[in-house]
């Protein structure tokens, strides 16, 4: 039982830590932050990566760039509540991202989503600033150390951040207001497949990189329409999750990415791990008074017909998660959301009918960008 003093103290601490990283954030951004916390009570929003940019036809061929189309909408009648995007290749002033989405179209999709009341989240699979030909996935130890050691590398990285800042500041609603987005850099860093992963830098280097990046965008470039998302990959414990955490002053939304592989053999193990990780996330989110989310997830090709209600729903329903986002419908062997005719469609609809998982209509009953 808490004594009155410890109760008062924890209340004061929660007041102090309330509010997002950027005190100068735009009104809409502050409102989104507050409303992401509030949505915990209404249900968990569903997100889809690149969901408006491309998807799959019933015969498994791709559709690309058809305005108004979305695989989730085709199967359910509604857009996803959350749309994910990636800035990979913006480093090089490329006109298209690493998965070939034109940045001009991405800007349009972000605006459409915002105007409908939905949420946009942006990740960044950037190349290596010490050797720009190398992608996120090319192994390169001590990259972060070499960025800060070498003026040319740091200058190059700052140039890349300028491009990120320019894109995010170019996102405007119809009244000219900046569109808030969740910016989620340096993800899955408990794994070692990216150059910023655990096997390639120390916790202190990772934190330094994170803080530098956020300070540069917010303080130097005056980007005031971002909420900062922090997402690990799999973790074993709360300590493991927090090992590289840059601090409450540098993170708005806490999350993790988790992929289900080797189904059905791994179904029970996956469910158990997923539940444990959500519980740990909820514990940290409650202590820090921050929204939390499963920032990427999925079972490639959704090979389990009842994956949504058997594996996902039991864990996400009645959780504190603001959203979970399934990865992109890239091509016939690499997709994570149901598309017309895909075998998990009936079960996906059953999950939506439970009322616990929100698509656009459910999520936007209350305007997420407005105050109380
Ligand atoms: C991975 C795959 C890749 C893609 C990358 C960045 O998970 O989907 O095909 O290029 O994400 O979006």
What does this structure look like?
The chain has an 8-stranded parallel barrel. Strands 2-3 form a two-stranded antiparallel sheet. The chain has 372 residues and is an alpha/beta fold. Helix 5 packs across helix 6 (151-169), helix 9 runs parallel beside helix 10 and helix 10 (307-316) runs parallel beside helix 11 (345-353). The protein has one domain (2-366): Alpha-Beta Barrel (TIM Barrel). The protein is globular and about 55 Å long. The model is unreliable at 13-17 (pLDDT under 50). The longest helix has 22 residues, at 267-288. The chain has helices spanning 4-16, 27-38, 71-76, 103-115, 143-149, 151-169, 203-220, 238-242, 267-288, 307-316, 345-353, 360-363, and strands spanning 44-49, 54-56, 62-64, 82-86, 119-123, 181-184, 226-232, 253-260, 292-299, 321-326, 357-358. Helix 7 (203-220) links the parallel strand 6 and strand 7. It is built from 12 helices and 11 strands. The structure holds beta-D-mannopyranose.
Map the helices and strands.
Blueprint: H1 4-16, H2 27-38, E1 44-49, E2 54-56, E3 62-64, H3 71-76, E4 82-86, H4 103-115, E5 119-123, H5 143-149, H6 151-169, E6 181-184, H7 203-220, E7 226-232, H8 238-242, E8 253-260, H9 267-288, E9 292-299, H10 307-316, E10 321-326, H11 345-353, E11 357-358, H12 360-363
Helix pairs in contact: 5-6, 9-10, 10-11
This protein binds beta-D-mannopyranose.
Residues 86, 98-99, 125, 327-328, 330 line the site of beta-D-mannopyranose.
């Amino acid at each position: 039982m808490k004594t009155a003093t410890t109760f008062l103290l924890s209340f004061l601490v929660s007041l102090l830590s309330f509010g997002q990283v950027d005190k100068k954030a735009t009104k809409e951004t502050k409102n989104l932050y507050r409303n992401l916390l509030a949505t915990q009570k209404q249900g968990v929003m569903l997100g889809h990566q690149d969901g408006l940019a491309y998807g799959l036809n019933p015969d498994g061929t791709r559709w690309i760039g058809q305005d108004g189309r979305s695989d989730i909408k085709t199967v359910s009648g509604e857009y996803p509540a959350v749309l994910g995007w990636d800035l990979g290749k913006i480093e090089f002033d490329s006109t298209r991202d690493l998965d070939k989405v034109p940045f001009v179209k991405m800007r349009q999709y972000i605006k459409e989503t915002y105007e409908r009341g939905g949420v946009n989240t942006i990740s960044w699979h950037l190349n290596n600033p010490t050797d720009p030909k190398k992608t996120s996935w090319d192994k390169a130890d001590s990259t972060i150390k070499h960025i800060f050691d070498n003026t040319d590398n740091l200058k190059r990285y700052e140039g890349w951040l300028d491009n990120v800042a320019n894109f995010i500041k170019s996102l405007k609603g119809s009244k000219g207001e900046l569109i808030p987005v969740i910016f989620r850099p340096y993800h899955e860093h408990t794994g070692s497949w990216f150059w910023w992963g655990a096997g390639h830098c120390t916790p202190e280097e990772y934190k330094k990189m994170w803080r530098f990046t956020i300070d540069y965008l917010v303080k130097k470039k005056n980007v005031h329409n971002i909420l900062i998302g922090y997402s690990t990959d799999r973790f074993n414990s709360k300590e493991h999750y927090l090992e590289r955490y840059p601090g409450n002053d540098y993170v708005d939304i806490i999350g993790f990415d988790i992929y289900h592989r080797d189904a059905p053999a791994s179904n029970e193990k996956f469910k158990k791990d997923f539940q444990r990780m959500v519980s740990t996330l909820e514990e940290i989110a409650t202590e820090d008074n921050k929204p939390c989310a499963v920032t990427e997830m999925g079972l490639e090709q959704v090979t389990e017909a009842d994956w949504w209600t058997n594996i996902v729903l039991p864990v996400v329903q009645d959780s504190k998660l603001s959203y979970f986002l399934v990865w992109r419908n890239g091509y016939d062997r690499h997709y994570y959301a149901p598309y017309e005719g895909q075998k998990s469609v009936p079960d996906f609809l059953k999950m939506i009918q439970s009322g616990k998982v929100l698509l656009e209509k459910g999520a936007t009953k209350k305007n997420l960008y407005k105050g109380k």
